[in-house]
Amino acid sequence: MKRVKWVTGLALALGMLTSPLLAAGVPKNLPYPQGTPTADEIAKQVYFVNHFYAVDNFSIKRVSKKEITVILSRSQGQKPKSNTVERHLNNKYSDGVVKAQDIAIFRSGKLRGTGMLITDFEDDNKSQAYSIWLPALRKIRRFAQPAHDDSWGGTDFTFGDVTLRKPHHETHELLGTEAFNSCLMSMELSKKNKYKKRIHGPDCGPKGKEVYKLKSTTKFSNWWYDHRISYIDTKTFGDYRTEYFKDGKQIKIIDRAWTTMNIDDPRGLWWRYWYGKNLTTDHETMASIPDAVAEFNTNRKKKFWSEKTLRKIKR
């Protein structure tokens, strides 16, 4: 029952402030900017990229027990805890109501057999809807969206980082452009760890590339961070690194390693990995995606994104 309570609590945590933050959303047909974009325009482009609006659908599927996305989390000096996950995002809706739907299925670890169906709406001020399959109960529970600062699957990534935070939740300031001066971080594992050969090492591809330096200040009061600094590719709008600050001190970092889908739109990217570290606790997380599991613009039918799919999940 502890596992059920943990997942239920994850979805029931409704700590998100509900002050009116009215603003136009990010359209799925957002045009590529001409000339130098403003800070707000850059934030919208980043959102466009991270939600894969350049394609109809995007999946990190399960190919085999070894060819699957692995998520590792650990405290300093500890052996990492692992989960494997598949995720399927569909943007192909035109009914004026649903904007996108997202299914995540945990295939191992403490959350094994748990599934989430997330529905995002065209109305940018309407909360997302969550349906969660609880394998211990063999039932689906429906919840309002969780808090932005809730941990996504027990990782250092919050629901805000992964899906909930939208450009209008922050004010944005362009601090200029510069050359990105480092490789992206990755989790270091011992040679004996079974995941050593299954996760990506540090990505030095972004080093030297021109990036926008964007400061985004939260509109939520008494929030867990005051502002964050993002380093964003000036051509693709992939956000390589995000640094979070509270009371003038950096408290968290997230690195994202992007790779191209090789489509006409330069914003057609997908993540090879995410790396996150809480600089206060030294807890770190690595989500590593094998090249073989990523696919997009498939002919998967829309009915896949339904509670019926959740009920079919096997433990």
Q: Terminal Cα separation, in Å?
A: 16 Å
| Low-confidence runs | 1-23
**Any idea how many domains?**
1
H-E string: HHEEEEEEEHEEEEEEEEH
Major beta-sheet overview: 15 strands, antiparallel
Helix content: 10-25%
What Rg, in angstroms, do the CA atoms define? 19 Å
Shape: globular
Strand content: 35-45%
What's the CATH H-level superfamily name?
A: Lipoprotein localisation LolA/LolB/LppX
Number of helices: 4
Overall mean confidence score, pLDDT:
90
CATH class: Mainly Beta
Number of strands: 15
Q: What would you call the structural class? A: mainly beta
CATH level 3 topology? outer membrane lipoprotein receptor (LolB), chain A
Question: Which architecture name does CATH use?
Answer: Clam
What does this structure look like?
- It is globular and about 50 Å long.
- With 315 residues, it is mostly beta strands.
- Helix content is 11%, strand content 36%.
- 36% of the residues are buried.
- Residues 1-23 have low confidence and may be disordered.
- A hairpin with a 4-residue loop joins strand 6 (129-134) and strand 7 (139-144).
- It has one domain (2-9, 38-307): Lipoprotein localisation LolA/LolB/LppX (outer membrane lipoprotein receptor (LolB), chain A).
- It has a 15-stranded antiparallel β-sheet that branches.
- The longest helix is centred in the N-terminal third of the chain and has 12 residues, at 39-50.
- The protein has helices spanning 2-12, 39-50, 159-164, 307-311, and strands at residues 57-60, 69-74, 81-90, 98-106, 115-121, 129-134, 139-144, 170-179, 210-218, 227-233, 239-246, 249-260, 269-278, 284-288, 294-296.
